[in-house]
Fold this sequence. Notes:
5-stranded antiparallel beta sheet
Amino acid sequence: xxxxxxxxxxxxxxxxxxxxxxxxxxxxxxxxxxxxxxxxxxxxxxxxxxxxxxxxxxxxxxxxxxxxxxxxxxxxxxxxxxxxxxxxxxxxx
Length: 93
């Protein structure tokens, strides 16, 4: 079995902004959970529209939540979203 090694920008053609992304809050304002908290997040892609994903939260502030987002449309694996776009789930991912 041969495994293909991709460069960091292998999916650059599919990258697109998340329209409801919030700026990274000041570190002192962030609260870290230490453990993943299961949530459903509303993500608004520039070209693909609105999508709800089951994921986890790693940190939050009073107004924004850092969710894990493994998606080839995104360069990073996390995105800060408005707190109103994230709701807690009972079961883990």
